[in-house]
Amino acid sequence: MTQIKKLVLDVLKPHQPNALEFATALADLGDGLAINVAVEEVDEKTESIIVLIEGENIDYDLIAERIKELGASVHSIDEVEVVGAKNKMGE
Amino acid sequence: MRWDAVGRIFLHVKRANSIARRYFVTNGFDGALTMLGLMVGFSLSDNIAIPVAITACLGAAIALCMSGLSSAYLSETAERKRELNKLEAALLADLSESDHARATTVVPVMVALVNGLSPLIISLIIITPLWLAKLGIQLSFSPFLLAIFIALFLIFLLGVMLGRLSQEFWLWTGLRTLAIGGVTVGIIYLFSR
């Protein structure tokens, strides 16, 4: 089964939760999930952020759902790193 | 709702703390001044039966509580919904499933409880000497006079609380609110003569 190892998302979010609270809420989704949030642009009500997520097996649907709960929306998936399992390649 | 979601909504509630604090002082002050006015009125009138005074004070306290609950809930809900709509427009997204939408329901309830309960609790504390007198407990002063002192003390404490919030000298802010209480007593005295 393929495993997502790295995701870079372009996200538009409200000012609250702030970057730290946002990253913590995403990191809570899995053991060893590393989250990096970089604020790119700040507007009156929103801010554009780049979210870098690294982990052993990232569940994108779960991440997207949590981002929605945090009041933000994914604009685009800018970068991915996906690893295919060995047995799958042999099939 | 999951526990982590509760934690995140708590962050929204925490951010509304300053609003709740403001409501606590504003409506608590309303409650204290209303009770002070009633007690001064009772003490200036002759032969006011304690049970009648208690009923009148309770009526006023409950009315203040209901007014505080409903007014804060309605205004805060409207304000939160407006903010949510503006945020949805800025994000071009539907936020109905977000923590912001959940907080729009939870925060007004919390703020309304603070706004409604603060005058009720303060009023009940001020009425205490009247209840003690009704129970037959001997008091060294008239229950109305004691209630006036308690009301003035609570008004002073609300001023002290404001001073601590604004980081001003607590005694000065306490005395300032106490002076408002004093002026209120003076005006009632003038009109009751």
Overview of this structure, please?
- The complex is a heterodimer of chains A (91) and B (193).
- With 91 residues, chain A is α+β, with helices and mostly antiparallel strands.
- Chain A has a single domain, classed as Alpha-Beta Plaits (2-Layer Sandwich).
- In chain A, 26% of the residues lie in helices and 45% in strands.
- Chain A has helices at 19-27, 60-69, 86-90, and strands at residues 3-14, 34-42, 46-54, 73-83.
- Chain A has a 4-stranded antiparallel β-sheet, covered by helices on one side.
- The model of chain A has no long low-confidence stretch (mean pLDDT 90).
- With 193 residues, chain B is an all-alpha fold.
- Chain B has one domain (3-192).
- Chain B is 86% helix and 0% strand.
- Chain B has 6 helices and no strands.
- Chain B has helices at 3-15, 17-44, 50-91, 99-134, 143-166, 170-192.
- The termini of chain B are far apart.
- Chains A and B meet through strand 1 of A and helix 1 and helix 3 of B.
Core attributes:
heterodimer, A: about 90 residues, alpha+beta, Alpha-Beta Plaits, 3 helices, 4 strands, elongated, B: about 190 residues, mainly alpha, 6 helices, about 85% helix
Structural topology:
The complex is a heterodimer of chains A (91) and B (193).
Chain A: E1 3-14, H1 19-27, E2 34-42, E3 46-54, H2 60-69, E4 73-83, H3 86-90
Antiparallel strand pairs in A: 1-3, 1-4, 2-3
Chain B: H1 3-15, H2 17-44, H3 50-91, H4 99-134, H5 143-166, H6 170-192
Write a brief caption for the model.
The complex is a heterodimer of chains A (91) and B (193). Chain A is an alpha+beta fold and 91 residues long.
Tell me the CATH topology of chain A: Alpha-Beta Plaits
* Assigned CATH class of chain A: Alpha Beta
Enumerate the spans of chain A where pLDDT stays under 50 for 5 or more consecutive residues: none
Annotated CATH homologous superfamily of chain A? MTH889-like domain
Overall pLDDT metric of chain B? 91
Q: What is the H/E order of chain B? A: HHHHHH
Mean pLDDT of chain A: 90
Q: Please indicate the percent range of residues of chain B in DSSP E strands (runs of 2 or more).
A: under 5%
* Shape label of chain A: elongated
**Euclidean distance between termini CA atoms of chain A:** 11 Å
Overall tally of domains of chain A:
1
What CATH architecture of chain A do you see? 2-Layer Sandwich
Cα Rg of chain A: 14 Å
Q: State the helix count of chain B.
A: 6
Number of domains of chain B: 1
Order of adjacent strands in the largest pleated sheet of chain A: 2-3-1-4
User: How many helices of chain A in DSSP terms?
Assistant: 3
Instruction: Write down how many β-strands of chain A occur, each being a DSSP E stretch of 2 or more residues.
Output: 4
